[in-house]
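Side project, low priority. Logging it here so it doesn't get lost.
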Amino acid sequence: MAYRNGTYIAFHANDTPNPTESDMKYYNTLRMWKVREDSDFSFINSHEKTGSVRDTSQKETLKRSLRERLNNSKNMILIIGNTTYQDTDWVPFEIEHAVDVCKIPIIAAYPAYTSILAPSELSNWWPKSLADRINNRTAHVIHIPFKQNPITTAVSQFNFDNFPLGEGLGYYNREAYINWGLINN
């Protein structure tokens, strides 16, 4: 059995190699937070636990690598940007494997928000594979803004043995956002 201590990060790459034109910029932000000496942000990146695979690899080779990374993960950060709902291949595949096979919680992180107190209002941002699993209550999801403190908290709090409450519509309360300095008292 795999040692499931990693955090898998999924994002829509928009079929572009330019990271500034896709949600890859947010993935790179996570990596930057991790290496900064003045930061307490820490996680084990599942993408760094296996050999790298080039985007030009055969689809089945990519799927095999992604499955291996997900199988070694305790949770998944799903970066939900402006175009994530349009992804019809990799993000849905990652969500389906994470929820249906690995049974890991999803940390849905939204770059466009500073607080999330009503996640159901964000359903138009969700890829169909996520919406289906939230609606049929198989996905365990915490919805948070793409901010360092909520991500740090969620990554350390939720795993395959500890799911967010809310049957797919989990969120942190107003007090948590006040403590993180993201909303005023």
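Brief comment: The chain has one domain: 6-13+29-179.
Revisit when time allows.
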